């Protein structure tokens, strides 16, 4: 009898916790965004952009100019792939610091030290900082928007080869589906008094 009472009390507590979260939509959205990022969806969008040379965004990147390829070789880098010379920009985009809120995932991007080339491959190094945001789960979508301007260097690259162009429906589909799946599972557990720890 005591065991049943304990289980009943535990279930009531879980239901109350779920109700508190349901009444706090910003906190619920924040948890879902955090879980989507933990599962690698944001990283996957960025990696696929670079792997496909922009094709997954619907706009393949402009090919490198012969002078750029020549410069890369002179400096000891490979002639490709596009936008990956030392790997600094790619790593910054993929591994930037994330923060979460009810409006989305914010990726803080430090894209320096991006070189400004002077003469025979010499570089002047400058510190760069920018941010990106992933948002609008409530409408079933995720969008990238820059909340601060990237460095002049990265901004110039982005104009010719938009590595942060808005994600296409094809890119967003897995993330949207998973977000809705997490939300549906949370509702199911809330209604049955199950624990939602481990879900997000």
What features would you describe in this structure?
It is a single chain. The chain has 200 residues and is of the alpha+beta class. It has one domain. The protein is built from seven helices and six strands; from the N terminus they run H-H-H-H-H-E-E-E-E-E-E-H-H. The protein has helices at 2-22, 25-38, 41-51, 66-74, 88-95, 152-160, 169-192, and strands at 97-101, 104-109, 114-118, 122-126, 130-135, 143-148. A four-stranded antiparallel beta sheet has the order 1-2-5-6, with helices on one face. A two-stranded antiparallel ribbon has the order 3-4. Helix 3 runs antiparallel to helix 5 (88-95). The longest helix has 24 residues, at 169-192. It is elongated, with a radius of gyration of 22 Å. Mean pLDDT is 77; it is low at 121-134 and 137-143.
Quick description:
By secondary structure, this protein is of the alpha+beta class.
Major sheet: order of its strands? 1-2-5-6
The radius of gyration over CA amounts to 22 Å
Q: What share of the residues lie within helices?
A: 40-55%
Please give the number of β-strands: 6
End-to-end distance, in Å?
33 Å
**Sequence stretches where pLDDT stays below 50 over 5 or more residues:** 121-134, 137-143
How would a textbook summarize the main sheet?
4 strands, antiparallel
Overall mean confidence score, pLDDT: 77
Number of helices: 7
Strand content: 15-25%
The SSE order reads: HHHHHEEEEEEHH
Structural class: alpha+beta
Shape, per Cα inertia axes: elongated
The total domain count is 1
